[in-house]
Amino acid sequence: IFMILGIILGIVLFRKLLEKKAVPNSIISFYYTTGLLSVGIGLLSAILFQSMYHLLQRGELAFTGMTFLGGLIGGAAAFFGIYFLKAKQEEKEYFAIVLQAAVVSLLLGHFLGRVGCFTAGCCHGIETDFFLGMRFPGHDHKIHPTQLYEAFVLLGLFLISINLFNKNKPVLPLYLIGYGIGRFLIEFLRGDERGTFIPGISPSQFWSIIMVFLGVYFVVKAHC
Question: pTM, whole model, 2 decimals?
Fold first, then answer.
């Protein structure tokens, strides 16, 4: 329910942000359709990435579970693919604004999705005696509510990003660096099955490192 709510509110916010920047309706329609297709492909990608991790670790292909970063990669690839193949010149002129609006909307949707993880009990943390530890069904000991840790990181990034968007300042580097670092650190507290991709780090930590490097690249590029 929270995931669906996050997708719906994210899509609604995306359109509202573009309207606020006086983007023409014809341009909004193109990117709105592109965004909807990207969300669908992203959900499929989230399942496929998790299945790949299971295959690498266990030698079996099981289409169970989802991984957000896998969905982000697939959804972003679809968004940029449609853009480069179908966008006309007038639509390309608004791409920078559209990208910033998409990032802000993504943060809102992801925040609600993580709240959903908390209510479902998935994506939980390791056992702990820390005062923030909570008891979950199926666990005999308190565990870290890593879903809420990440949700608060996303909420903070969302509030900052919407402020930057209103001031016509770039949002993408904030998301890449802020979420990349936050997710990398939270992964150390995760207690659910993370899969194996590169020895020593989880798959999500690997992609988090890539995100941070991309974010730093965009910051450096903007100031050179």
Answer: 0.87
